[in-house]
């Protein structure tokens, strides 16, 4: 089965296919806390959620793509529970901490293997990661800010419809997700003009500051005057970052971690502290001179990118993020053609940990195909 075939299949055909997959079989063997999931194991709940989707009043108004997105969100939203479920020794209750976070990565690997296109895949992965947020909105100190913040990560309309199905896809009257909470989420999103679109910040810098300051002010309208532009590359080894720069940013000086390693004689498997330090100094020199430049490294996770983004923003740079992800087979082939190829098993391991960048991180984000 591949993505194109599955998205033209019926819901029952998709469920029958899923039942043959190892991650699904693990859900069948994973018990849940009876107070919240009297229906039984994770796979039983998942099937109920999937079958609730076509019963939604809004279902017929969705496009085929939106319906596929919701079906696969439902299919994968709890797929990481077998990896995280544990018995609380104090309460005797079953818990699955961070199953949504781990579920994002599991979903990404499943969908990559199916050949799902990058944009659709990431929509599903982020819905999986944040699917539990609406239920706990009233526990947040600033519900409006929570809704606005998530609007640049997920489509609230799709998230709302999924959470309705998730709430109804269980056989217990005691639920941690009363539908009144979900309707409150929808109401706030509509009031903030971000139910079916991201929140309309005044400009790119207003959005950037909202996500990068400790106490953001959503109404602040900053003046956009930048000292320089930094083009930050992100992608697996062999994804074509050097080629992209050679074609699209020919005039820019480049700070490349690979080049720094070569200059220092440091292997990728060695300690990278000295490499990072020298790269930061080279970046600082360009930033002090207010020069546009490119920063070329794998930058595969949000945490790794944040260290560099803080540096660039401290100097008042406008930051554009370029994420490259051709098919994994293409990456492995291009890596093999490099002068110093990275071991294939390393690339496959890195692919399982990738977090593609979002517009919460930089002024612009592009996924060139």
Description:
- This protein has a five-stranded parallel β-sheet, sandwiched between helices. A two-stranded antiparallel sheet has the order 1-2.
- It is of the alpha/beta class and 369 residues long.
- The protein has helices at 3-6, 11-18, 22-28, 42-52, 64-76, 81-84, 99-114, 118-130, 143-150, 156-168, 179-191, 204-212, 241-248, 257-264, 273-288, 302-314, 328-336, 344-351; strands at residues 86-87, 94-95, 228-235, 254-256, 293-296, 317-324, 364-366.
- Helix 4 runs antiparallel to helix 5 (64-76), helix 4 (42-52) packs across helix 10 and helix 17 (328-336) runs antiparallel to helix 18.
- The longest helix is centred in the N-terminal third of the chain and has 16 residues, at 99-114.
- 49% of the residues lie in helices and 8% in strands.
- It folds into two domains: 3-191, Hypothetical protein af1432 (Orthogonal Bundle); 228-366, P-loop containing nucleotide triphosphate hydrolases (Rossmann fold).
- The radius of gyration is 22 Å and the shape is globular.
- It has 18 helices and seven strands.
- The model has no long low-confidence stretch (mean pLDDT 94).
